[in-house]
Target: Glycosyltransferase family 2 protein
Amino acid sequence: MPNVSICIPTYNRANILPYAVNSVLNQTYGDFELIICDDASPDNTADVVAQWNDPRIRYIRQPQNIKRSRNMRSGYEAAQGKYFIKFDDDDALTPTFLERTVAIMDKQPGVDFVCTDHWVINAHHERDEAATVANSAKWGKDRLSDAAIDDLLKETFVHQSLQVGSTLFRKACLKEVDFMRFEADGCEDFDLLVRLAAAGKTGYFIPERLMEYRFHGGQTSLRQDIHFLSAKIFCLESYRFNERPDLESIRHAKLNGLKQVLAMRLIEKGESQRGRQLIQELAAQGPLSSKAKLGQALSYLPLGLRQLAFQGFRQIRPQDYSERVRNAAR
Model:
């Protein structure tokens, strides 16, 4: 039985999958199995996987497309290792990731998972130093030390400092929370880490860049944004931090903020009634923000005009580091 199970869910990315797979095969620690879960890709993913003659690789091809979360789940359910990591088909591990994280897990049985910092890379596999530093600062990774994490619930829920793709878990702790919830599709990583923290698990952080996270060119679609926001609202509505009134207050504020953003996206898409309904729910709780009032007003404009208005707002908004990397990669 392998000590570590590594799962790479993939869909229609035969061109970049080798980058992720080779990053696993080049690990300095070799006691692992690599499970590639293919969600019925219409490209030549099967042919690409066939090029590797390594008994540690297991290839699961779904007979039909079962969507992201269920495809991920299939790899988790097939995993035989004591430790488990899942990362995306466009990302990569640095050569010593397993060596460094497994060593901590082996030496400290009270640690349930180990997370590391990561590089930001663009679509050309290039590391962006400035974007990496900005990303670490934005999510608070730069203030975490090489130690067990204090107040894990605050780090995962408020700061969102950790990332599943750069985290090695004990599979036993994932079983206790039933791994990923399908209703959280799109933000299942955030949801998993919060639920582990709420269950009293112990996380350890290594402040080294031992993983590569890719920023692609282009922007997400309105449909994708709405799907993600709806999933995250589901997550926040399911949490209760009764013993942490500070976090419960933050939960309510985050939930209202997400509902406002979702209302704006729905109005931009043309689902005006749903957008106005969300704004009415927010109004029942207190004064509306200027942004919510603007969205409400725009909802009465013809669809073409309101979409032009939203596009105009985006053009005058300053780009952050992630948008700069994505646009440079196009």
Remarks:
- DSSP finds 14 helices and nine strands in the chain.
- The mean pLDDT is 94.
- The longest strand covers residues 203-214.
- The chain has two domains: 4-214, 222-328.
